[in-house]
Amino acid sequence: MNHGWIYREQIKRSDAGLTVLDYYTQRYRHSSRDEWHQRIAQGQVLLDEQPSMAETVLQPEQWLAYHRPPWEEPEVPLEFAVLYEDEDLLVIAKPSGLPVLPGGGFLEHTLLGQLHQQYPHDTPAPIHRLGRGTSGLMLLARSPLAKAHLSQQLRKRQIHKVYRALVGVGEMPDQFTITQPIGKIPHPVLGYIYGAAPDGLSAHSQVQVLKRQSNSTLLEVTILTGRPHQIRIHLATAGFPLLGDPLYVVGGIPLLKSINGDEQFPVPGDCGYHLHAYHLRFIHPKTKDCIHITCPAPAELD
Hints:
Blueprint: E1 5-10, H1 20-27, H2 33-41, E2 45-47, E3 50-51, E4 63-68, E5 81-85, E6 89-94, H3 111-118, E7 125-126, E8 135-141, H4 144-155, E9 160-167, E10 175-178, E11 182-187, E12 191-196, E13 205-212, E14 217-223, H5 230-237, E15 248-249, E16 253-254, E17 275-283, E18 290-294
Parallel strand pairs: 8-17
Antiparallel strand pairs: 1-4, 2-3, 2-4, 5-6, 6-8, 7-8, 9-14, 9-17, 10-13, 11-12, 13-14, 15-16, 17-18
């Protein structure tokens, strides 16, 4: 059991006029209307630090706080290897299955939660993110200087990121580039999800075939942008979804149907796909040295 969590949010003008119950029911569809009504009735939702009522009408700039009681989180691999560390930087090898940030039922069983336990006074800040099912290199900042400098490198596309990915067999060139824009697509539970979208943000991936096998193809993917789930979406767009990906299908569109008819929809945090952050290159914010780090890939991606 964790210690519970408080989710705070300020009411936007566009949400004014909704009742407290309607607000939570419409924004957080992972729970039913009856479940939200029960939480409000039990005093778990405060409005401007006071107990709220389900029918209370919201006004702009008010504050809502949902006090989620302690819950038992799903078991995930919590150990990670430190590959580089100094007073400014931390580079770790994240295991597949470990979420980076809280969400979707995970709080302490996340990389950020584990880092907070190990570095309680100066918890490293992720410069980029990896999906829960993705393994490999993550770059984190341990100082304000590093956070500012590395974030700037990321925006200017100066951080070189190379991945290993496993897809099925098919006729694909030895090298190809994918520039499909990525944007938000409506999702029946999450509200929206990212996928291939003509009106989305620009995205750029360079792909090279490393090994062709009888039932799979090993790829090296260099991403010049860092859109959410970019490699999964791009390879699916090209007609080669990651092997085992429960979400993204050919065309780069998320699978929007229930599993076994039980109202369980695939979500980005579902694991099973084969993707590994293999190599990272960046400029050290203090020494200005060019840092190269490689994380050995799992056997199926080697």
